What we know:
Blueprint: H1 7-23, H2 25-37, H3 43-50, H4 56-59
Amino acid sequence: MAAEAPLEELERVSNELESLEMKYPDAYSDFSGLFKKNRSVGYKNICKMLMGEATPRELKGLD
């Protein structure tokens, strides 16, 4: 499946991820594992919770 984002943006994000992995290898591994274990929740939902933009109840439309 081809990404919609331009190649330049994808490469920039890839470089930022590599930098984070080098700076914080343990935390990077933990987050990577969290995303892998919870794929069914959806990356957007995980990111919204991570950034403090939504709670689980808000994502379900309960609040």
